[in-house]
Design a protein that fits this description.
- The protein is mainly alpha-helical.
- Helix content is 74%, strand content 0%.
- Helix 1 packs antiparallel against helix 2, helix 3 runs antiparallel to helix 4 and helix 5 packs antiparallel against helix 7.
- It is globular and about 55 Å long.
- It starts with a helix and ends with a helix.
């Protein structure tokens, strides 16, 4: 997990170099999921309890928020995996289509960055506009992963649309749907 966190931090600080290091380490998708993404999602979910310091909610409502936060990022990973595995072969360099393991590793890092934004937001006593714009930076980091996924440079617009539409949009869409169900 320490390696996963270090590489996530490196992706945030230097995205191009970070994706090169991820590629050189050849991480296993299952290991990245179990020892990287799932613990970060769990931390994001548990960090919901930090809101109890500033907001007066019942324990049951906080527990429900914990469960929906975990489900939100867990479902986002699998929705994004389905979308990326389906659409990515159409925009990659011919003959160099990335395997499902590489796509899953890309998504582990991308969804974990989104979960880190939730952790930051949960520990702040008020909503800051800067935190609301951090997903744009995650989109920039994902765009730098173009070489990691062998995306054709001419398909960069489609690739950015695919990554934003399969990683960032589902986070907020699933959160909205789960909030409507739980009310």
């Amino acid at each position: 997990m320490i390696t996963f966190l270090k590489q996530t931090l490196q992706l945030l600080l230097a995205p191009t170099k970070g994706w090169e290091d991820v590629a050189s380490n050849s991480p296993d998708a299952r290991r990245s999921l179990i020892h990287g993404l799932l613990p970060i999602i769990a931390v994001a979910a548990i960090s919901v309890f930090a809101r109890a310091i500033w907001e007066h909610q019942s324990f049951l409502m906080l527990l429900l928020s914990v469960l929906t936060t975990f489900a939100q990022y867990f479902l986002t990973y699998y929705v994004a995996l389905l979308a990326m595995v389906t659409a990515l072969p159409y925009i990659t360099i011919s003959g160099d289509t990335p395997d499902e393991n590489r796509i899953a590793v890309f998504l582990c890092y991308s969804v974990s960055m989104m979960a880190c934004i939730a952790v930051i937001g949960n520990f702040l006593p008020m909503e800051l506009t800067l935190v609301q714009f951090l997903p744009i930076y995650v989109a920039v980091v994902m765009a730098q992963g173009r070489i990691f996924l062998s995306v054709d440079p001419e398909s960069m617009g489609k690739y950015v649309g695919l990554t934003v539409g399969s990683v960032i949009v589902p986070v907020y869409l699933i959160e909205y749907l789960l909030d409507k169900i739980t009310l």
